[in-house]
Known about the structure:
This protein has 21 helices and 13 strands. By secondary structure, the chain is of the alpha/beta class.
Amino acid sequence: xxxxxxxxxxxxxxxxxxxxxxxxxxxxxxxxxxxxxxxxxxxxxxxxxxxxxxxxxxxxxxxxxxxxxxxxxxxxxxxxxxxxxxxxxxxxxxxxxxxxxxxxxxxxxxxxxxxxxxxxxxxxxxxxxxxxxxxxxxxxxxxxxxxxxxxxxxxxxxxxxxxxxxxxxxxxxxxxxxxxxxxxxxxxxxxxxxxxxxxxxxxxxxxxxxxxxxxxxxxxxxxxxxxxxxxxxxxxxxxxxxxxxxxxxxxxxxxxxxxxxxxxxxxxxxxxxxxxxxxxxxxxxxxxxxxxxxxxxxxxxxxxxxxxxxxxxxxxxxxxxxxxxxxxxxxxxxxxxxxxxxxxxxxxxxxxxxxxxxxxxxxxxxxxxxxxxxxxxxxxxxxxxxxxxxxxxxxxxxxxxxxxxxxxxxxxxxxxxxxxxxxxxxxxxxxxxxxxxxxxxxxxxxxxxxxxxxxxxxxxxxxxxxxxxxxxxxxxxxxxxxxxxxxxxxxxxxxxxxxxxxxxxxxxxxxxxxxxxxxxxxxxxxxxxxxxxxxxxxxxxxxxxxxxxxxxxxxxxxxxxxxxxxxxxxxxxxx
Length: 575
């Protein structure tokens, strides 16, 4: 039965609020450890950026846990009599409330591991371990019959929890000064985002060859190799037969801004500063948090009181490849790196008259004639992805006649978005609930889009000529959305994406150029290795502070023997 009287329920709320206050302080500590050098505490331990977080988690605990406990006791045979302060109930609420928060701390280490320096990761690990051990003592006291009726046991559990909290709060103040987004992203998100002149940081690049870098997020190497074997991708065929290729490991979190910034800087996220997909700020504070504990509804709870801005590759603090080229007296051009269609969400619905004619090359004519909202949404996705890539291709066309020495880098976001939406139709056997009609209408879309990007690659190869290099990358691949995620989208009405890259599926690298091994498979590298490899191919110095390595297996042995690596200390900060 329900607790007797409103007073008893209010007493439960008091106990749950105290447990929630403890949990809120743990969340605050995780935020500080996840964003080292943020200065979130201001002049004291709990500043304007963290106080609202602590209070909101305390209030949420005070409401949620008493209601759930009341529901559990609905059929109880005796009424509940509860004093205003009971260590037993306080430890009980602490046990259930702190468990998901500590789980979020461990997930933080797993899902954002590339966003931390080894020292920061060690500090976070130690804090999670101390708090987890103290929580385990409280959980044992709560569930073991021999202990849960003894006040001394609950007192010891409470003392251990407080001691662990004090130790953790002391530990978080000793973190290293990291690079965190402490401002709202303010760089332009459009196409192109060309770079201007900056002061040279290395020796003049008198013999710098021309390098084109094309990036296609979400492209799958197995799909490329399968279509190549079927003779469907002539552009990729040239890359495979006349150049070298291999797989690239990505980084976590596998968000577009993070992976792209890692690719073009040769620095890990904890160094280039783009550490997640978004930055968040509580009003009244100048602190922006880029890493937050996952799985505890942080954005949901604080959404009415928080400003949230999408991150972009241009938020990086380290220079990109094209900026390094400019610093070495070469030329640098770039476009598309800040365009993230996942962040933009579903494409706006187009009326039939607004659909571009070229969409018919990608979609079945019957799909274009359908009038229902779901069908029009799919048409709109194709139209937006193609139009976005066309804008980047236009920027590429602007440098095709440029025979100067330098690096031009272009990122095409269309395939990644279409892979998110259309993977279920391309691989219906992995989903099981795709109708034959939908397979006929939408199954060929991804394959046709691979043809589209193959044409872009062929154009780049022609532009590079016999003396230039073409690098084709995917910062990550795509994989089937797990069943729990698909079910959650169905139940909550969220966006039903069939392809995801949350677990950082491998991307790829293809290289074509005059000194590249023909028909070679270099094995496996990392996306952080691309930047130093491009610099080496371009004859530019490689910085000692780069986190990546040159993929020497790409180049011929005579070339590597006659071209030693030129090294400088650093390219400095982003201009």
